[in-house]
Amino acid sequence: MSKSNSFLLIFSVIALIIGVRLEIIELFGSQTPYWDDWGLGGFLTDYKVYGFELERLFRPANEHRITFNRIMSLALFEMNQQQWNPIVWMIANATIWAASGALMVSVINRYAPQPSRVALMVVAITFWVLPFALVNILWGIQTHTYTMVLFSLLGFWWTTNRPFSGKWFAGIFSLAAATLTLAGGTFASVAVIGVSLMLFIATSKTDNSCSNRQQYLKTSIAALLPALLGFALIAQVAGGSDKELILTDSITTFLKTMSWPNYKGLWPAFVFAAPIVLLIAQIFKHGEAPSRFTRFVLSIYAFTVIVATGVAYARGLGGPSPAPRYFEFLSLIPLSSLMALCLLSSGRYRVGANTLALMFGGYLLAFGSGLSHQAATVDHVLKEQKKYKALQTLNTSRYLNTGDYAELENQPFRHIPFPHSDIFQAILDKMSAADTLPPSLQPQPDLQWYPEASDEEIQSSAFFRNGTAVLHEEILGSDHLGAPAYGSFNPEMGEEEATGRFESAALRINRSFAQISYMGDISSPDMQLYLEDVGSGDRFYIEPVATPRYAHQYPMTKWLTTQLKLPRGYYKIVAQDNSETGWFAFSSPRPVGRLSYYAQELSSYGHYLWQFAILLLLWSLRHSLIGMFERMRLETYEQPSKEHA
Fold it and tell me: Of 100, 479, 505, 530, which is the most buried if we count CB atoms within 10 A?
């Protein structure tokens, strides 16, 4: 493949992965954090209140040291004008995941066996694109999962270079970086050590293997340093040493983990392991130094085995299946198994056609048997999001806007996005005081008429508090998430026929963008809604949300949110309704950080990005696909000729 096609391939892979995730975030993402996400919000709030403390970057989170998670979070927090927004973190995570997918595809494109190269790339891209671990995609705090995979893959690949070269040192550094993501990142170094020592032993038969054996030994010794660092950093969880360990339960959990995607079975673990075991046997049989790609494949599989062992030890009581948040990096199990199969189908390690057919058939059966479980998991998460997302935002916002603890207390499970209402109240109070809450959760000041407004002007205006066509608890009119809103649906003045003007007192906008929610029709020429700079008199008109693809989801009686760019300062909101056939309502504006603004804008383009990326991907693979089909045609043509002869 030419350099231009290789570049186009990697670009299209990144665009495809990010595009799919952007659309998922647009449809199902929420600015309301959930469960562990609030710990990240607390970390950022403490940073704003107390300042930067280096020691906090390395504090344990359970048994992990999520240092890179915290570093990236601080960078995003500052770039977002010290505002936390999980949507921004979700998009950043999508970028990291896309980078690891591009790395995998790049290695396969350059170093995998030629006959199976295209098929392997397609499978790898599919694994990276499909939302197996949907909970991670919609959970901003999961940065540590994505950085662990990225740093581990970089370490596996770069340490296959010549020892003491620049890339080799970069590989050792990547292994060290992996230890500061999840505790499982430490096992990346252990995998490199194990594979290197195995190859040191396996290549002892050949006379010319001295140089390679020294390389393996140097790599294993160097990888020992990040491994020791990682084990030193793994924190002791309270009560963890007293945990009961039942061997049979742990083995069951281990086999379920290694059986992914059929995470309820046990037998696929042996099917996926068979190509790896046979590849290792072939390496010992030939005694020759394997290719860099072979070492890469073995390191990936060894890593997943050790991680599965850790999961079995830490979470194995009762023999449960692995948690859905593990599903993304567990996809490395069937992928590395398939790569091993491809290595066994050509080159020096080639095995018999019958053996290959048996293993490949078993592989398809094992992988296919788990797809229904994966589909069910994704469907369950989507239903949960649909059921609870709006309710969690509503209850949280109502507390922040009213200060009434009853909005949180005694709520059913998952009706608020944290399991303990008293702790949740303390978190919200602290973040509200520090002004670090996401835009959609910021307490909204009560809109007041401008001080010079006369009683006659107020009485003659159609706009009044909660003036909407929504029937809420048998009362006509609706607030906005607990904060008073103003609307021109006025029953005393003819409902839709009511007309008039509203002008508020000055409001402060302390960030570069503002977010405002509205209901009804603001697109009519007879309607005006804008923010006016108190000092300069500049007007910033509020435009309706452009939702042509999902317009059916947004009726006139549903609150919509739109954003606009404006200088920091003091503004008054002005509304004018001159229509006798329509109405609209609005809430007070909320300051929005620059990344929050661009994240919402960017997510609306995900649908178009992934479709465009598919076209680019097919174009970049056109020569490879043509060559693959041509080889298949020739093999089909030659086979009958040989049989006839």
Answer: 100
